[in-house]
Design brief:
With 101 residues, the chain is mainly alpha-helical. It is 54% helix and 6% strand. The chain has four helices and two strands. Strands 1-2 form a two-stranded antiparallel sheet.
Amino acid sequence: MKIAPLFLCSCAPLLLCPSAPLLALPPPEDIPEEVLRTEIIIEARSPVDGKPITAAEYAQLRANLGEAQNGRPQVNPQVQHLLFLLRVSYPLRKLFPFLHF
């Protein structure tokens, strides 16, 4: 007799909300991920300013940006020399920690 009230108390939450498993399902208007993966994307956004552009404009923009990034950036010769000195001084400081330059 003592087991029955304990059983009812442990099963009461399941009896009171039988629709809880239905909440775990996605809404019927939700498109499955498998279908979304097969769709061809025909619109895009510009990586420069975020405006909507067509696929052809996006491909052309990516090509132009790729060409601009392929070249070596132009740096002032004085800055280049300063960077060279910094790169040389780092290992020298490790070898000779008592030198301050």
